[in-house]
Specification:
The protein has a single domain, classed as Alpha-Beta Barrel (TIM Barrel), CATH 3.20.20. 45% of the residues lie in helices and 11% in strands. The protein contains 14 helices and 12 strands. The longest helix has 19 residues.
Amino acid sequence: MNPSLDLDGLNTRIGRLFMAGMPGPDLDMGTEALIREYALGGIILFSRNIQDPLQLATLCRDLQKMSLQYHGISLFLAVDQEGGRVARLKAPFTEFPGQTEIGKDPDPVTKAKEFARVTAKEMQLVGLNMDLTPVLDVPRGTPEKHLIGRIFGEDAEAVASLGCAVIEELQKNGVMAVAKHFPGLGMADFDPHKQLPEIPLGQEDLTKVDILPFKAAVQAGVTGVMSSHAVYPSLDPVNSATLSHGILTELLRKRLGFEGLILTDDLEMGAISLGKGVVDGAVQAFRAGADILLICQDQRCVLESIGLFRKKLLVGDIELERFRESLDRIAVAKACFLKKRKTVSLAAVKEYFGEKSL
């Protein structure tokens, strides 16, 4: 056993690395147990969890209250709110077109800033604090269908400019931004929700085009970067980016100098679950350099992943210093964005959305 490891509260430190989904619109026993027993790091919410602004605000308030009551730590509460067809917040929340339409606007930077400013205001109002956007993939021709409408355009510099506008405006208004899908899914031939794509581009081409917007996002101070579930043979011939130390640590951390949070895309996607598997994938993703391990559906996978992580940590297969580094990054992000946040006001939600809040 690792002799320098303090076993007291170990589960509640490992749990901080995980962001989990929950089954419905109300706080359930499984989610409560994850928060109470493991100090879960965050919750990602989907359409199944959202009925209207008042219900969402109540849910976010109750989730934060529980986490603070048990551990004194706020939760990351995240959604995919890109606009267009990937938008978990529907009317009466303000609805914006997807990134492709923003990129085509006569004044795209202004439109991108408006999207981010209004989105951040409404997210903060109901208690959400992390938006898994912008999408910084740069397509080569027509993108794979799961990305259609979600990409700013085919010019890497324009994608970088619009992405940074979104990042800066979201974060200026109190919502963490997460750039995705590093190092770029623009040439994906398959949907990683179903199978593992391969991106057959050389390092020079990747650097000049695909990685360029992410480099700009890092320089703009983006809070998080989400990894892609795709193989890049010129960077790592074996592992997808999510599972690759060479891509997450050597490239993103060291070469690009990123000091923020690295999040995996959902580990239950076919690209991971049909290969490495969710549980083993979570441990390998952490070893590769990820800080936040995203499991969006099956909470049993969260529990199994925490259990395997604990075993690996106890026998020294996961380095203690590496573990502490991720915990520190998570603590810094939460201190920066969540420490001084106001408690959700249901009265303010009703006033803003009026009769449509219910």
